[in-house]
Amino acid sequence: MKEAALQRAWQHRGALALALWPLSRVYGVLAGLRRLLFGAGVLHSERMPVPVIVVGNVIAGGAGKTPVTQAIVRHLRATGWHPGVVSRGYGRRITDCREVLPDSKAADVGDEPALLARSTGAPVFVARRRVDAARAMLACHPQTDVIVCDDGLQHWALARDVEVCVFNDDGVGNGFLLPAGPLREPWPRDVDLVLHAGDAPAGSAPSFALRRTLSPNAVRADGTPVPLHTLHGRRVHAVAAIARPEDFFGMLKQQGVTLHSTETLPDHYDFDNWKRNSDKHDILICTEKDAVKLWPAHPDALAVPLQLEVAPGFFPALDSRLAAASVRSLSSPSP
Questions:
Q1: How do 162-167 and 193-196 pair as beta strands?
Q2: CA-based angle 86:52:143, to the nearest 5?
Q3: CA–CA distance, 79 with 170 (Å, rounded to integer)
Q4: What is the mean pLDDT of each run of 10 residues along the chain (335 residues)?
Q5: How many CB atoms are closer than 10 A to CB 186?
Q6: Sheet with strand 193-196: strands edge to edge
Q7: pLDDT tens string 258-305
Q8: 3 state SS of 314
């Protein structure tokens, strides 16, 4: 409830946001100093021998980075690239560098990397330092010719060739930095491409509209599809441990699914000790990200994949920037 109240405050320059504004100034100075140190070479950014695409955001909370990463990886594979994915693996219990396999436990690698490994077929590595994950992946999968970093727009230790900034429909909110507003760094700032679910944010970067919808089919743990229309009129309990659970519930309703009950849990919740608070005969439905943690103990849960509709010009613009980055990588190999 406190988190929800803060997110509401981030949409306006009201009393709470103004009270927190002095702290946001301190945050801004520290964040700016860190970036300045990387820019001056005092702190080191390491460049990989292949192009790096960072998919990230400048706001706290869920902006939809992982579904965008999925879409980019699928596009790259379809156009002849051999992408690999690196991530910090937020929420996992261990901090080593490791490859994420299709049967890896979310507790060991993080829920989003586990989902990416299962849904894209690309190699995925996690490490506290994304540079370590990138090095390990190139050593284990030398055919990798482009790295996609899921999150990490502010992780300056990994040099990047293309930056894709994702916004949800809240945009930049009240425009304040944390904790008075949702911004992790001042906006606008230089990025290569912007994807936005709401209005296009200010800035000079090419921006493209993004629309999120649910697949018409849920998926069982064994991969069997279940058309959502077959759930019409049945008792459904929806659970979501994501940054914006109300979006998931709303999209289910748009698909004609009547929700008998809903359950909201903290983002990245591990589900280890979770017990159903609904009738055992109710159909349990969840997001893809939650399913990787729910299925081991609740194989009856249905996961509903998220689908993205991206403005037609986005992928050609990405291809153009990636082609230029490839030329730079060939002419300026990593030392």
A1: parallel
A2: 75
A3: 32
A4: 77 94 96 94 94 95 88 97 96 93 92 94 96 98 97 94 95 96 95 96 96 95 95 94 92 94 92 84 94 93 95 97 83 53
A5: 14
A6: 98-100, 124-126, 83-87, 146-150, 52-56, 162-167, 193-196, 207-214, 306-310
A7: 999 999 999 889 998 898 877 788 999 999 999 999 999 999 999 999
A8: helix
Instruction: Please state, in angstroms and rounded to a whole number, the distance separating the CA atoms of residues 66 and 85.
Output: 11
Match 């429909």 to its residue by tokens: 169
Residue type, 279: D
Q: Which two tokens stand for residue 299?
A: 């194989």
What dotted CATH number matches 38-212+309-331? Answer: 3.40.50
Residue with tokens 């990989």: 48
The pLDDT tens digits of the residues spanning 109-147 come to 999 999 999 999 999 999 999 999 999 999 999 999 999
Q: How big is the chain by its Cα radius of gyration, in Å?
A: 20
Tally Cβ neighbours within 10 Å of residue 2. Answer: 6
Q: Residues near 71 by Cβ (< 8 Å), separated by ≥ 6?
A: 308, 310
Tens digit of each residue's pLDDT (9 = 90 or more) over 254-263: 999 999 999 9
CA gap 213, 3 in Å, rounded = 25
Place of tokens 């992928």: 315
Specify the residue for token string 């009547």.
258
Residue with tokens 């699914």: 257
